[in-house]
Design goal:
The protein is mainly α. The protein has five helices and two strands, in the order αααββαα. 17% of the residues are buried.
């Protein structure tokens, strides 16, 4: 067996063992009487957009700009999964149906981004990514948040990640 593969398998096993509790509900220590100390924190729409969508949106833009198509495809899949999760976690926002808002604002745009990634076409990617931004911004306006304006990133906020394509 290849030494690099063996090392990678060992590292993966260590991560999985060490992350055994990750993703499980975490409970705060209970006082002596056994009563909970407070309600669990429920993420707001802003929390979900800032933690789930915004970094993936930026990574998608950076990867596409660098023509790192495998990373762009990965970031696209991540943002699509995040949107689906948000639609389930918060079905309504401001009295409006979140899954329908997501569908109207970004579904076609994400399909265009996907097509550009598959074509490995930087011009098509830039156009589709701009249309995605327009869809996001239209949704923000619809939800009375016109001050939340997304754009293509002009610098990386991820200094620990390489966005250039790897040989």
């Amino acid at each position: 067996m290849n030494k690099r593969f063996e090392l990678a398998a060992l590292v993966a096993a260590c991560i999985l063992i060490g992350a055994g509790g990750v993703g499980l509900p975490q409970t705060a220590p209970q006082p002596a009487g056994g009563a909970p100390t407070g309600a669990p924190y429920i993420m707001t729409m802003g929390d979900m957009m800032n933690t789930l969508i915004q970094p993936r949106h930026a990574k998608l833009g950076l990867a596409g700009h660098a023509q790192n198509w495998p990373l762009a495809a990965y970031a696209l899949a991540e943002i699509q999964q995040s949107f689906a999760g948000i639609g389930k976690a918060q079905p309504k926002f401001g009295g409006m149906p979140v899954p329908e808002l997501i569908d109207a604002a970004v579904t076609q745009q994400l399909k265009a981004v996907d097509a550009a990634i598959k074509e490995q076409n930087p011009q098509s990617f830039a156009k589709a990514y701009d249309q995605l931004n327009q869809g996001c911004n239209a949704c923000h306006v619809e939800l009375n948040h016109p001050f939340v304006v997304v754009k293509a990133p002009d610098a990386s906020s991820f200094p620990d990640q390489e966005f250039g394509a790897r040989p």
